[in-house]
Amino acid sequence: MPVPAGRCSNMDEVREEIDRIDRTLVDLIAERFSYVDRAWQLKVSPDEARVPWRVQQVIDKVKAHAQHRNLPPELAEALWRQMIGWFIQYEEEKLRASSAQYGPKD
């Protein structure tokens, strides 16, 4: 059972909760990755991996939610931009490899 931060009485409890949260974050990022992995399969060319309006839409939503949760929006933006950048690069590489191997999709 999670211990609220204000009720942790020592660093061992704090570290245990941080480790629990890290496991949960990895699980959630893995779930998000599964959708990114599916997304590239539904696209036709590497150009479709980079969609600036969608990136901005995601960033705006994340920043708003972060602010609602009293998390610095700048922190959320920095984390998401890094993650999105990695996912875009992943999609581009997969799409280039797929195009090279099979030619353009119908």
UniProtKB/TrEMBL annotation:
It holds the Pfam family CM_2. The keyword Isomerase applies. Residues 5-95 form the Chorismate mutase domain. SMART domains: CM_2. Its EC number is 5.4.99.5. GO terms for biological process: chorismate metabolic process; salicylic acid biosynthetic process. Keywords: Isomerase. Gene3D superfamilies: Chorismate mutase. This is chorismate mutase. It comes from Methyloligella halotolerans.
